[in-house]
Amino acid sequence: MVLPSLASETIVKRIGLFGGSFNPVHLGHLLVAETVREACALDKIIFIPAKKNPFKKNAEIAEAHHRLKMLELAIQGNPSFAVDTCELDRDKVSYTIDTIRILRQTYSADNYQFFFLVGADNLTGFPDWKGAEQLVTLCDFIAFGRPGYDNRITEHPLTAGFHFVETPLMEISATEIRARISAGKSIKYSLPEVVENYIYEHGVYLPVDADRQGGGREADAGDRSQK
Fold first, then answer.
1. Per-residue confidence at 60, pLDDT binned at 50, 70, 90?
2. Which is nearest to 28 in space by CA: 95, 140, 119, 141?
3. 76 and 129 part of one domain
4. In a domain, 6, yes or no
């Protein structure tokens, strides 16, 4: 007996791409990712830590293996979150258009629709991104609010088609977290506890002298004794 052929439609998965230094990853990053995932019905959010960010002073960025491990710890337990190391694996400046092309080698356009997450602070400068005109043809863009920035989509033709998602505006920044660590101040409730523990256990962002003397861990001992 010959079975009738069954017509099947290709199911296209919606993938959010969240790039950044994640130096370190904090609760603001995670809340934005989850809010966007739910609002835009994305199947997955892939975090992409940058090796060399073209818009930041790379001398201030922690070693790649530390940032990767902190990301992995931060997203554990959330099956909708994943990490891709394609930018860390390349010893070059991380340009979004290059990353999209690399990811397309794994995620075909026939089966996966890309949505790249971008903060409102990057909207006005987007036209200056490498290959911006071609980039908007390779994936969709989702803009999210950032404290202190005009969160409306700009009128520039390249960003006019961006989707905008209202996200909680948390006054948490990686820069402030690093400064507090260096100053021996508490960073509790700014990032996942497992990431906080990793930072102190491995001396990430601690001044060299403080790390050798255990000063960073002592500075937060008061908070830790309340656990």
1. confident
2. 119
3. yes
4. no
Structural domain count, the chain: 2
Gap between the Cα atoms of 57 and 32, Å rounded = 24
What is the per-residue pLDDT for 57?
Answer: 57
The candidate with the shortest Cα–Cα distance to 130, out of 158, 163, 162, 150, is: 158
Give the pLDDT score at 153: 57
Q: Are residues 207 and 129 in the same domain?
A: no
Residue 82: φ, ψ to 5°? -150, 165
How far is it, in rounded angstroms, from Cα 72 to Cα 66?
10
Q: Residue 28: which H helix or E strand, with range? A: helix 27-39
Q: Give pLDDT, residue 59.
A: 57
Residue 69's domain comprises: 13-171
Q: Which CATH number goes with the domain that contains 155?
A: 3.40.50.620
- pTM of the entire predicted model: 0.84
